[in-house]
Amino acid sequence: GASVGDNCIINSKALIEHDSKVANHCHISTNAAINGDVIIEDGCFIGSGVVTNNSIKIKKNSFIKAGSIVK
Question: Whole-prediction pTM value?
């Protein structure tokens, strides 16, 4: 049930788990883990090694630096 929008970059070893939605124009960097039921709005950059909690929303045009944990 995961979905990825238009014009996105999903780098090597990135994981997008069940029921997550990546909107348009997003960049999911190497080894990022997008856990279940996460919504990533348009234009977001998710750095290398980022880990998200389940069921969160990352707002439009957010920049999440490498190695972050998003709760």
Answer: 0.96
